[in-house]
């Protein structure tokens, strides 16, 4: 149920998978932030509904659409990811053909490959089967209402259990050797206890600001609205906070940011601040709020 003002909007479902696919492909960058590469990409005996590329993590994303209940998401997901890993050259060639660029296999971070299932409904079975903290399968629920209003819900994983703790097929084991789903614990385990506490403090302050998602990347953790608001990179005794705003657009009265426009870096934006104390967090929060205004949902 969704309301616009005091009026309840009626659900107006997508007619079929093709209509759902067309809507998603036409709005892919706004919804997921990925570059749309092509539709109905055939590799061997398989056909990928939508192929996308995440320029932030330099990885391919396979998107499949389900407008009916389907009980084999995990099996299908691993099958397609195994295909991606076995036919890397085919995916890179298609990317280069469409974009007129010269990407190489070594330019891609295959460890951050993902398959994303998009559907108006997921069964409890599907939700439970994909609720492992390290499974490379993501679910996106899309509900359309009258007046072309679309609600998009990114299904978050809630379990702390790893899929390896259960009996899995050899195909899944092969994929998991190369593809990794990064967690907050992966970053926190490498830093001091004081840095862990700093992260938890700044994390709680950021999440209090608005409806903000956490997206754990290989080398940093992103806090996202419509786009990244701030990215946090971990060092042993400090945090590096990247503010996702272009040079010249951030009001920094304390002059605490470093201009990284021409410096190689991992996070998004042209500003970076090092945080090593709680006082630093108090100073950086007004800057994060400015980025939130620009990048909020």
Tell me about the biggest sheet? Answer: 6 strands, mixed
Helix/strand class: alpha+beta
Q: Average pLDDT across residues?
A: 91
**Beta-strand content:** 25-35%
What is the fold named in CATH at topology level of the largest domain? Answer: Trna Endonuclease, Chain: A, domain 1
Task: Return the string of H and E elements.
Answer: EEHHEEEHHEHEEHHHEEEEEEH
Q: What spatial form do the alpha-carbon principal axes imply?
A: globular
Count every helix, treating DSSP H or I runs of 4 or more residues as helices: 9
* Approximate helicity band: 25-40%
CATH class of the largest domain: Alpha Beta
Q: Which CATH architecture of the largest domain?
A: 3-Layer(aba) Sandwich
Low-confidence stretches: none
Main-sheet strand order equals: 3-4-5-6-7-8
Query: Please, what is the oligomeric state?
Result: single chain
Ends distance: 20 Å
How many strands?
14
Number of domains: 2
Report the radius of gyration as a whole number of Å.
Answer: 20 Å
